[in-house]
Design brief:
alpha+beta, tRNA_NucTransf2, metal-binding, Alpha-Beta Plaits, Beta Polymerase, domain 2, 3 domains, 5-stranded mixed sheet, 4-stranded antiparallel sheet, elongated, Poly(a)-polymerase, middle domain, ATP-binding, 449 residues
Length: 449
């Protein structure tokens, strides 16, 4: 297909770019080896990820260097010594900082490249895996052995998934990982064969490239049973206990399903390189819809996306749940950050009626007689008079009271910032106007857009 050739010409690294990537990668590798020599341990550096597998896209090449410790190394020693080693290597690069996953690692930069320096165990098979990152070495080896020259097909699929916004297994994306992308190409042989068989993939659901159902049926079937609610079950060819697609959400798989069908019927460059979504006037849209926008705006905490965005989602869902109990119909929720972090709530109304108890005087008094005349409903408890009145509550006051009384399930690490936030109604700062429109118009998630 000529279109795919055109796309490849745009995403495949040139020979010159490959030489630069190779040179920088080799330089980082040599720096790592020199630092490893200072440690009296049998630590082996491994290049993993898309550079090692030659499946990276032009202009998108991070270096993933894993520092593999002997499998008999105590975990605490791996964490401590591994971080010291990663910091020592990072100190020889341009910049570095400590990041956190299952255990600490180092994120660095070198000559414009991002470099991850990750301590792990040097494992030979799935039975030796002790930490989540240990499999990465096995993944890289397996893909190199089985890809059989289909590297460009992986590139096409990656770019397609990026174009339709379903690429990435991070908790705030819940899409297709690079490894899953490579496995699907190995399974189907090409990008177009996968696209043509998308209905079969959705119905068959289970992919077992490692033959684990035959070799380790008990473990494999436990994995299948445990992951039965997932849209796809791709048993890891290097570990029968793991579903490579476990992070994939039904929403992201659904987008891929419909976009694959559309592409099959009408292949266009826009699937790979979509135009910027059209925007409009969010205030006019609110008037047309008859709904309201509540925006909770606060200082962005100094947290990585893997931590911040799930915490924002948890807080947004917590607000949605409690406001519904308080009588506000929450149409939709949105969260994210720009200069500041935000949570957006589309609600049916910003005011609600509420009955308030009126405590009156004792009835054997002049003021008691006056209270009796003024109120429609009056009752007596002991010697005192009581009535009720209808008041109007604003959603801002309701949210503030919920925060004060600690009645919202907020993300723990951002709770302080949220409870001290600004709450805006039907108005957002200029930098959030586009985000507000895309949210309210549903263009942000429109599968047919």
């Amino acid at each position: 297909m000529e279109l795919l050739k055109e796309v490849l010409s745009m995403i495949k690294p040139s020979e010159e770019e490959k030489k630069v990537v190779s040179a920088v990668t080799e330089a980082v590798f040599q720096i790592a080896k020199e630092e490893i020599d200072n440690y009296n341990l049998d630590i082996v550096p491994y290049l993993v990820g898309s550079i090692a597998k030659n499946t990276y896209l032009s202009g998108d090449h991070d270096i993933d260097l894993f520092l593999a410790f002997p499998s008999n190394t105590p975990l605490e020693e791996l964490k401590k010594t591994g971080l010291e080693l990663a910091k020592a290597i990072g100190g020889k690069l341009d910049t570095y900082e400590i990041a956190y996953a299952e255990h600490p690692y180092v994120k660095a930069t070198y000559k414009g490249f991002e470099v991850d320096l990750v301590p792990c165990y040097n494992v030979e098979n799935w039975k030796e895996v002790r930490t989540a990152v240990d499999r990465s070495i096995l993944h890289t080896k397996w893909i190199i052995e089985h890809l059989n020259g289909k590297n460009d097909e992986v590139r096409l699929l990656k770019r397609f998934l990026k174009g339709i916004n379903v690429y990435g297994s991070e908790v705030y994306v819940r899409g297709f990982s690079g490894y899953l992308t490579e496995l699907l190409i190995i399974k189907y042989g090409s990008f177009m064969k996968l696209i043509e068989d998308i209905e079969f993939l959705g119905k068959s659901k289970i992919v077992d490239l490692g033959g684990w159902i035959r070799k380790e049926p008990e473990i494999a079937y436990k994995t299948i049973e445990r992951e039965s609610e997932s849209p796809l079950i791709v048993i890891d060819p290097v570990d029968p206990r793991r579903n490579v697609a476990s992070a994939l959400s039904w929403e992201k798989f659904g987008v891929f399903y419909f976009k694959a069908r559309e592409f099959r019927e009408d292949p266009r460059l826009e699937f790979f390189f979509p135009p910027e979504k059209k925007t409009g006037n969010y205030r006019r849209l609110l008037r047309e819809k008859g709904t309201n926008l509540v925006t909770i705006l606060f200082q962005k905490p100094d947290l990585v996306d893997d931590i911040l965005l799930p915490q924002l989602e948890k807080s947004a869902r917590g607000l949605e749940k409690v406001l519904k109990k308080k009588g506000f119909d929450v149409v939709d929720i949105n969260w994210g950050y720009m200069e500041k972090a935000f949570i957006m709530l589309e609600v049916d109304k910003v005011h609600r009626p509420k009955m308030s108890l009126k405590i009156g005087p004792e009835f054997l008094t002049e003021s008691g007689a006056e209270f009796y005349k003024k109120n429609k409903k009056v009752w007596i408890r002991g010697k005192r008079l009581y009535s009720e009145k209808e008041v109007t509550e604003n959603i801002v006051d309701v949210i503030k009271e919920l925060f004060i009384k600690n009645q919202v399930a907020l993300g723990r690490t951002i709770k302080k910032e949220i409870t001290n936030s600004d709450i805006l109604v039907n108005f957002v700062p200029p930098k959030l106007e586009k985000e507000a429109y895309l949210f309210l118009s549903k263009e942000k998630w429109n599968v047919k857009g």
